[in-house]
Amino acid sequence: MTAQKLSIVKAINASLRTALENDPKVLVMGEDVGKLGGVFRVTDGLQKDFGEERVIDTPLAESGIVGTAIGLALRGYRPVVEIQFDGFVFPAYDQIVTQLAKMHARALGKIKLPVVIRIPYGGAIGAVEHHSESPETLFAHVAGLKVVSPSNASDAYWMLQQAIQSDDPVIYFEPKRRYHDKSELDTEAIPGPLHAARVARPGTDLTLAAYGPMVKTCLEAAAAAEEEGKSLEVLDLRSMSPIDFDGIQASVERTRRLVVVHEAPVFLGTGAEIAARITERCFYHLEAPVLRVGGYHAPYPPSRLEDEYLPGLDRVLDAVDRALAY
């Protein structure tokens, strides 16, 4: 029996352990990933079992961490870099978007950079500024980067395996507010494609599309709406670059309405691109405009105000009601 119930933290740890066991070229790097096991204990026990040369505690220097990972990838390694918190990635932004993302095209395909950058992201943990941001769109906008986010233990395990095996750089966003949510994981299952959307709950009246931490919120919204006789389909997008527009279109053609939900600001967020594309593709199927629910176009607030900033059940259900009213 290979199926077991694990938290997302434990699933990521198991995935890293599997990768380290299966490929001697896989390295884990980051601030406090070794002896401490990471601030969220995601890498707990890995340095003890695989040694300091493969699970590497780095200086507090994100640009240097990513730059070193690029150099290691050029020499045939597969580095898995941890950025300790979402807001800490910006010192490394130049390395990521001007070097990591561009090298394959710059070398006309002769150079590959199999680097994974793990970033715990999102809010609802009561943290200070720079610890609760959702910068995924900044990376999804950059050609040459794959950008993904799991919402459950199974995807956390398998999507990280696929990211590490990819010859292209992958930004792997981990929904830290969901780290301790448990779900079934089968470590011998055959995973689906890395960038394919998944129907998390079938429905007929409207599609709620989300990724990462908002998938659970949308499932809760669908359960609440069912009590009022509304059937909502929940689509777990899983990937922000590339986006599975075919999967979204198939769902919208069934339900004829779409609400896109994410923690990041609505302004120029992932939902904006999805709304534009689906309006083009599904114009004659839609019975209401595509609506978006997300954070506000403002700096992330102090923790005492984050419940007002983050989209919750009420804001999602309000958008559902507005869409169904057309």
Automatic annotation (TrEMBL):
Keywords: Oxidoreductase, Thiamine pyrophosphate. It is an enzyme of class 1 (oxidoreductase). Residues 6-181 form the Transketolase-like pyrimidine-binding domain. The keyword Oxidoreductase applies. InterPro entries: THDP-binding, Transketo_C/PFOR_II, Transketolase-like_Pyr-bd, Transketolase_C. Its EC number is 1.2.4.-. GO terms for molecular function: oxidoreductase activity. Its cofactor is thiamine diphosphate. PANTHER family: PYRUVATE DEHYDROGENASE E1 COMPONENT BETA SUBUNIT, PYRUVATE DEHYDROGENASE E1 COMPONENT SUBUNIT BETA. This is Alpha-ketoacid dehydrogenase subunit beta. It comes from Streptomyces nondiastaticus.
